[in-house]
Amino acid sequence: MFGHTSRVVRSMKLRTQLLLLQLAIVLVAVLGTGIVAGWLQEQQLRDAYRDRMIAVAQSVATLPAIIDALDDTQPSETVQPIAEVVREASDVTYIVVVDDTGVRLSHPNPARIGEQVSTDPSDVLAGEIYVGTQTGTLGESWRVKVPITDGNQIIGAVSVGILESSLRSDFLGSSVALFVTIGVAAAFGVVGAAWVTTVIRRRIYGLEPDEIVGLLEAREAMLHGMREGLVALDEHGRIALINDAGAHLLGIDDQNNVVGRPAADILDDDLLKMLDDEESRQRLILAGERVLLVQCDSAKIGDRMLGSVFILRDNTKLHALMRDLDGAHDLADGLRVQAHGFANKLHVISGLLELGHNSEAVAFIERVGDGGTLSSVTSDSGIRDLEIAALLLVKQMRAHERGINLELDSSSELSPLATHDSAEELRDDLLTVLGNLVDNATEACASGATVRVRVLESPRSVDIEVSDDGPGIPEKLRRKVFTPGFSTKGPNPGLVTASRGIGLTLVERIAHRHGGEAVVKEPLMGGTTISVRLPFDDSTRPHKAPQSVAVL
């Protein structure tokens, strides 16, 4: 039965369900209130009659004429007229006076005088006061009985009552206004319920519950299944929505606790600045150590602004791959140039030999026997980690093609790093820091300049220092170079703006994650010097074992 009822309810339209539910609530509330109000009014009416009847009965029971008449041989001749006068004056149905044997001495119907009362008078003749409903010769009545005493002796009783039918008539007469009010309230409730139902249906665009559930499930599946991060702000600047990918990219552990909070308390300043920048709505942002491609759009319905939406794409790996690709291109170009140079030298040697100038050929070989650019790197360098050495070699080749001399300080030393996860993380961080520092230095210098790199390994840290003899950084800007988006160079060409100002910020954040620091040092001979310290623990300590292959 309950299952059938549930199916019937689900099959109803939402508008019908809302209307019936509200009607039930209104009717129950109104009728319940009316019943309680009617019951209270009836009780008040009965209490008023009870108080009046007690007062009348006690006044009759204490009249000296009544007390004295009970000792007469014909007491009814005195009691009946007095009782009738009091009855008419007090607007009660009857006043009956009985003697101590229960015989009537007064009654609205004189024919009943002298008869035994129809109800048991023993309680009142025992000295108790009775209040209640009984059925007598006049019908069912609400009555009060009090004893008549002469000194300490009970000599009779007085019964005062009003018919229940009269009580109901008085109650109905005084309740007309209450019933009218209840009816008007019920009518207004019905009209209001219908209006509320219409408003709710309009607010939810006439959708049924199943349709709403379907839309919600589809929305949740799409939002949380997206690989791109999504952050929506309402018109007051509060976070209205954030999906799983967005929380992951922004480093938010509990996305449910940020919904409804001001965006200024959660999002980075770079993201908030995009809200006010109408010209650049897509740019690269550094969130923690992630490079994000962020697109900011306004959310509108018609002409009404609802807020803003951020779409986040993780470009960290792409950014690293592009840097690696640039390095590979530079190395390939360098090898191509070097191969061309070797070919020219071989042609010179071949010509000298064919001409019979053997001694000149040997002298030429001795003069150019350094092997070109790649072999110009000293083989006794202290950098014995292959990946770090390879990075420096590629950067040296890239700098050479730009006419910049990249030198590795002779005091540099770095043992091979371990191969487990924590050591790999340190190696990746060293590669990132070195690559960004060298790139920034070479980009800041003109042709003919020199960039110097020093890598020092201590018992608890790796210290990296990169200096150049370029134009340098003004003192007031030395702290700002680590600010996201800040750059002394112009923007990179392309569709995505503000792609500069990321490298040094990333360097500083990596250093802070390791418990180290990144600082711009006071230049001694001009140019710029940036020093970075990356502390490590025993698990990532470089091995001191010698390595047979020396790359640098």
Features:
single chain; 552 residues; alpha+beta; Beta-Lactamase; 4 domains; five-stranded antiparallel sheet; five-stranded mixed sheet; disordered C terminus
Quick structural gist:
This protein has 552 residues and is of the alpha+beta class.
Written description of the protein model:
The protein is of the alpha+beta class. The chain folds into 4 domains: 15-174, Beta-Lactamase, CATH 3.30.450; 209-314, PAS domain (Beta-Lactamase); 315-373; 377-540, Heat Shock Protein 90. It has 15 helices and 16 strands. It has helices spanning 2-11, 14-61, 64-69, 76-90, 122-125, 164-174, 176-203, 209-225, 244-249, 269-276, 316-354, 358-367, 386-401, 421-444, 503-513, and strands spanning 94-99, 130-136, 139-150, 153-163, 229-234, 239-242, 282-287, 290-301, 304-314, 382-383, 405-408, 413-414, 450-457, 461-468, 517-521, 528-535. A 5-stranded antiparallel sheet has the order 6-5-9-8-7, sandwiched between helices. A hairpin with a 6-residue loop joins β15 and β16 (528-535). It is rod-shaped. It starts with a helix and ends in a 17-residue tail after the last strand.
